[in-house]
Amino acid sequence: MAAVTTDKYVYHIPLFRQIKKFKDEYDVTFAESTFCDIIKSTTFWIEPVYNIFKSDLLLSDYIQADETHIPVIITSKRGKTHKGYYWVYYDPLKKIVVFEYCHSRKQDHPYEFLKEFKGILQIDGYAGYNSIVDKCDITRASCMDHVRRYFEKALYSNAAKAGYALETMQQWYMHEATARNEEYSFEQRLAMRQQYIQESMEKFKNNCMEQISEELPQSLLRKACEYALGQWDGFKPYLSDGRIEISNIRIENIIRPVAIGRNNYMFKGSEEAARRGAIIYSIVATAQLHGKNPREYIKELLTELPKSKNSDIRNFLPY
Description:
Strands 3-2-1-4-5 form a five-stranded mixed beta sheet. By secondary structure, the chain is α/β, with parallel strands linked by helices. It has helices spanning 2-9, 15-26, 32-58, 108-114, 130-135, 144-154, 159-181, 186-196, 198-214, 220-231, 236-240, 249-265, 271-289, 294-304, and strands spanning 62-73, 81-91, 96-102, 119-122, 138-141. The chain has three domains: 2-57 and 272-316, no CATH class; 62-141, 2-Layer Sandwich (Nucleotidyltransferase, domain 5); 144-245, no CATH class. β4 (119-122), α5 and β5 form a beta-alpha-beta unit. It contains 14 helices and five strands. The protein is globular, with a radius of gyration of 22 Å.
């Protein structure tokens, strides 16, 4: 069960290819329904751990969020799919990942998930988060990687000014890399930012305001500056709290396996299959962040949880 599950969700091998491999290598024939039942059964047993991931993550006061689409078969229309979404939440301090499957990209879904959360939410510029931040007791933190990408697009039309912006941001990232490599405490990271980054960011902001007044409305550089200024209030937490990252690039890396999986197994067979995928992706990503082999970890859960009490489940959390 652990092998079939991780072959699909870690190594992106669709079930029909796994079945073919068993036939080619061992001359054993499995029905596709057998492998589907393996995924269902695996999810059934590991879901209690996933539920604790969710409750523990929502007790945090700093999380990152992002979303990605996944095609899902419409069971009432043969061969047709709709665009479902995985909303992904990550606690950078506890290193907990939670994937939540939702039918659409509507803001109702993250609002329902985050309505009890109190703290700092680090996100990109997607407008769907706006009402969530407004309705809930949430402080918005911005992502510098998304700001940088706008200036990368402007580089080809205005190399000098866009290049200056990118070089300036590169200096901030170099300071952050030093802090990470030398294992600075949160207090040391904050002191580093106040000494080397804060003044530079203020100059960067002023420069963006100047460029907006000088550039034409359709200019890529102007659009980059407008996006940066639109996100600027979201960098206040970064400059006042050493725990906050300069970007949420880590959560994008966590999401990448979904994109790779899309290219291999193409779609989810049903809404329920997509929900099971969210549970497995959460278990796999959290295990990996804590240095655990996903296959061995899932095997441990499948071996031990069936003979354990509910009160014992915390003994099997990777963190």
